[in-house]
Amino acid sequence: MALWRSVLCALALTLGLAAAAPAQELSWRSSSVQGPRQPGLNTRLGVAFFVPDGPATYERRIVPADLPQGGTLVIDVDTLYRFPDGSTLTMRSRETIHLTPQGTHGADTWSGEGEVTGGTGRYASRSGRFSYRAVMGLDARADGVLGDGYLEGRAVLKPAP
Q1: How many structural domains does the chain have?
Q2: Of these four, 19, 54, 116, 152, which has the most CB atoms within 10 Å of its CB?
Q3: Is residue 4 in a domain?
Q4: pLDDT digit string (tens) for 40-50?
Q5: Strand pairing report for 128-136 and 24-38
């Protein structure tokens, strides 16, 4: 009887019938400052703290998706998070920001969704969805404020294939 159980377990694993690993949930809070700017490319640099995975540095690369219209600008954002163990996590989103009358990005609050597009190390071959809330225009000189931008988010990562 024990031999048959072993054979059936081996067969189930071979055929992929074993229970799938659960999705991984992450939440994080982050702060950023203005990084290098080039025509058509804006960069923000920051630090994030993920629960349960800990701290990461990150770079948000922001490019316009279209011309400004009606005081708003649609942007495409690629974010790369780097963790102390060498793992990386990449996310992509399309966001709409409000512009000042001068055509710059001023104090603003917005939220949205995006996709987790991959990673390395513990995030190798991972994908999923995330949602976020962002605040810009904070006073970076105020006590307890690390930068002029704040973002918090939640992600659900699919199990690695």
Answers
A1: 1
A2: 116
A3: no
A4: 999 999 999 99
A5: unpaired
Q: How confident is the model at residue 12 (pLDDT cuts 50, 70, 90)?
A: very low
Residue 14 falls inside a structural domain = no
| Domain-embedded: residue 141 | yes
- Helix, strand or coil, per DSSP, at residue 52: coil
pLDDT at 13: 45
- Rounded Cα gap, residues 20 and 86, in angstroms: 26
Task: Characterize the bridge pairing of strands 41-51 and 108-120.
Answer: unpaired
Element (H, E) at 68: none
Structural domain of 114: 21-157
Q: What is the CATH number of the domain that holds 99?
A: 2.40.160
Q: What is the mean pLDDT of residues 69-97?
A: 94
Question: What band does 147 get if pLDDT is binned at 50, 70 and 90?
Answer: confident
Per DSSP, the three-state class of 76 is strand
Name, in order, each residue with C-beta under 8 angstroms of 50's C-beta and a sequence gap of 6 or more.
Answer: 26, 27, 28, 56, 81
Within a domain: 48: yes
